[in-house]
Amino acid sequence: MQEQPRSPSDQQPVNSGRPIPEHAALLAIKLSADKHNDASIDDHEVLASVLENILPGVSQGMHIEPLISSQEPSAVTALVERAARMDPTYKPVDFGAWYQVHLQPGMYKSHSSASAASDLASGQELNLVHPSHVAELARRVEEPDEVECAHAMRPVPPPMPVPNPEANPREANEIYHAAAPQGIDARYAWTRLGGDGAGIGLVDIERGWDLNHEDLRASNITLISGVNQDFLNHGTSVLGEILMTDNAIGGVGIAPNCTARVISQWRTSGQYNTPATIIDAVAHMSFGDVLQLEAQEVDDNIPNSPFFPVEIKDATYEAIRLATALGITVVEAGSNGSQDLDTYANPAGLKILNRSSPNFRDSGAIMVGAATSSVPHDPMWFTNHGSRIDLYAWGENVDTTTIESEGTYISNFSGTSSATPIISGSALCVQGIAQATMNRRFSPLELRRILAIDGTPSRNGTSDKIGIMPNLRAIIDGTFVQSAPDIYIRDFVGDAGSTTTRTSLESPDIIVWPTSVVNPQNSFGNGGEFFNATSHDVVVGKDNHVFVRLLNRGGSQGTNINVSLYYSQPASLQVQALSKLIGNTTVSVIPARRFLTVSDEILFAASAIPVALGPYTFIAIAGNPDEPAPAPVSTMTPKDFVKFVGNNNRVAMRSFNVVSAPPAGVFRAPIHVAEPITKTPKIATVALPGAS
């Protein structure tokens, strides 16, 4: 007897936890740092006082809890600290200052406010069932100094569809798999090792799915947390685009062999909470995984608000930024609002989605627009657009899975809902190939840039403001495999650039020299890479000269690499030691294919050298805008710091001694012609003037 498909209730809980409260007003409020960090003040009392001053009586029956409750505070703090170590541009956020406040529905008379809307002046009533009144309350809550920001929280439907290989019978319908300019050329990616997303993790954030669909069941998709609650047809269609199994049934997903999980915005507490969902997802993900945000938001300060990307809400933005700082690629639906996002201003009047605005804030996510399936591709009438949109894909006529009554498949899935998984699938294919062929994964900013290069423009190009559609063939044959740099500093002579658990304070690529060197590349470059004694003690009272060597195991040259050099006493290898900056230098070009490149000198001035004689340690860190230099955080222990060095191939250490006088005798200087790293080193012994 043929196995019958199970109902959604058979595969994951559809209603677990407390009942979802009806008509409750829910605010997300972030306390100011000075109030939250004052141990003598109770956060709950501050929040109650602020709300009571605005709406007398509202604190009766009020319930306050942390906004992020699915992860322990210490776990969230650890994520923030790790993000700061990995991404120096990330500004750490105290998620403990965020609270969710549940207010009893009803009518409340407001106190006066200098900025209150005219229809909500002193003595007027706020109806906490009405979204615009809840939004007004959030705006009023932001006025006191005790509060940094606040916004309303309520369920918003996902970007809904807008009406309008060959062994798998429906794959022929998946024209978005086809070669550019029609599609993304997923079929070409499948011919490459890892091009089916194998080895890369995907987490889909929305509200519900049928994980037992006949063409999804074999993917063994699991629910991380939350309640598989509603919009199951939407989630099922989204997953089908990426994960339909290559099993001679139905179609084939873009990245069918990735490792997929889902997580619901409906929390087990019964609340709808997007930022908490993101952070819970991030806690279960690794660098280079893909987090898909199939969700959208409204701004209740705008009458009849259209749909906007979820990052317009401050707490959600901070959660996304944490994810990208941790190296997780976030693919975010641009939403079905028909809006020019360049014109959007948040409640504070800031154009946070306009790249030309001084108030623009970049979460690091890939934001997705929608276009027609026909060539040339035109923006769909419903898609949001603007400079913040990075990439686009088909927003109509997408063939995928569904649980709707007309059958188990659908041929007209649409919206930014259909476009977003095409971009997520593209990201998974590229990461899969990178991992399989280069033993690395791209950072979110690298991947966002790679997916846009040599892609398919829309009909009117940049004036359409929906970005570029990826062309996987062009990426694989050109930009991707051939052009991706991967800069590293060796921890030991045989280091090939992979992260390692090996602890070493003897990087051969941090070199101290007692005098200036006319041509550092000629003296210390290719040919001397196997010589680990090319360094000297640091002499107190004299200027010393330090050089850092870098390698590039990628397929194209790296540019504008900043190198920072610090020193520390070995017993205190913590971030506090990194306040002892020796200096910086920029290497303009690092050729591909492991050509050993030497930086200009970093002067270790006599005035900066510690007077106490004895052992110390250099720490060299490299990075550029595309791949920012990793940075440790202030709470890192010595053990954690050593692990930090091992886990980052752009960080290296070397021990050295501060001595009172230079050693006597002749110095050994490598003199040779720069050659490929595979050549036998040619070392000559010469006497250097002034070296005695």
Automatic annotation (TrEMBL):
A GO BP entry: proteolysis
Keyword annotations: Hydrolase, Protease, Serine protease
GO molecular function: serine-type endopeptidase activity
Residue span of region Disordered: 1-21
InterPro entries linked: Peptidase_S8/S53_dom (IPR000209), Peptidase_S8/S53_dom_sf (IPR036852), Peptidase_S8_Ser-AS (IPR023828), Peptidase_S8_subtilisin-like (IPR050131), Peptidase_S8_subtilisin-rel (IPR015500), Subtilisin_DY-like_dom (IPR034073)
One matching Pfam family: Peptidase_S8
SUPFAM superfamilies, alphabetized: Subtilisin-like
Transmembrane segments: none
Family membership: Belongs to the peptidase S8 family.
Protein name, as recorded: Subtilisin-like protein
